Amino acid sequence: MAKILEFLTVNIAVESLDEMLPKYRHMGMSHVPPSPWPDPPIQMTDVSLELDPAPVALSLIEPWEGEGPVAKFISRRGAGVYSIAVRVDDIAAIMADWREAGMDWVLDEPDEVPGGRAARYVADRVLVNWVQPKTLGGVLFEVFELQGNVRLHPESIPAERTVTGSAPRGA
Question: Domains plus CATH for the chain?
């Protein structure tokens, strides 16, 4: 049975990365280089932020040239939490299983992410789809499958410095 492998990030829609990124960096977060996705259905620039020693905590997403779903979100609701992203082991199986459970998808089939990026990862191939917010209590759930050679982005916090396991903090 297909499953969620890990939480990736909370995506925060912003009007301007140039304005917001310095504020998040001032809070002590580092980031990997921006990942531009100009083509539909994504149409945004993503900057994934990390807080040492944890993996990705947040991603700031800016509409691509004022177009696309992020632009529509900001015009309707203003800047703020846009979606929650997770990594799964088999997106096609997840889509079928979750569809049976009453969840509707934005796309009929997953879309390939240009450049093979998902949060702090780079992979040979990255597939994505979104669960319609109306089927999850108003939350847009972004679902990624990373295929082939999956690795941390070279500018990500090194894996040996990330927290793993289930021991409580301070233990």
Answer: 4-161 (3.10.180.10)
